[in-house]
């Protein structure tokens, strides 16, 4: 058996492919705002998001205890970078992104994103200059073509997320291909049971 050689990576940051999302939040100066992050995941009705502790988003999400997570696709690359690079600005206006307010949170749902989550803060943990926001998902909405008529099936094979990967020295965006593999087909006797 051939063993692959491993080497240590000397970097402070390592992104091994995380979906890019736009956080929407209430802002005292501009009423509503948005920021870009690639540090988020969900488990059941819980979501965890990581952002810089000294950011405007961290200050206002900590203050108002609610936010939205909006998942963009490739046609919003300029907007993604505006929301990521211009701290302290009115990024929703600067990027010209239309939005509506959440049903359960007073935060912007970005209309051009194909998936949005309304979230309430449960806990905030600060570590090494970053905060991890643990939230409860109050509502999930998606473009109609991604959801079955009864609202119970999310057709993830139709979504086109943008992934962020790299290290301290070089970071890039990666895009999904149209190729999908059904859950359970790679194991003999496996089934595709999402329940």
What would you say this structure looks like, in words?
By secondary structure, the chain is mostly beta strands. The protein is built from three helices and twelve strands. It has helices at 56-64, 77-85, 91-94, and strands at 14-19, 21-27, 31-37, 40-43, 46-52, 66-71, 99-101, 108-110, 115-127, 130-142, 162-167, 171-175. Strands 3-2-6-9-10-5-4 form a seven-stranded antiparallel beta sheet. Strands 1-11-12 form a three-stranded antiparallel beta sheet, with no helix packed on it. A hairpin with a 2-residue loop joins β4 (40-43) and β5 (46-52). The longest helix is centred in the first third of the chain and has 9 residues, at 56-64. The chain is globular. The model has no long low-confidence stretch (mean pLDDT 91). InterPro entries: Flavin_Rdtase-like_dom, Flavoredoxin, Split_barrel_FMN-bd. Pfam families: Flavin_Reduct. Keywords: Flavoprotein.
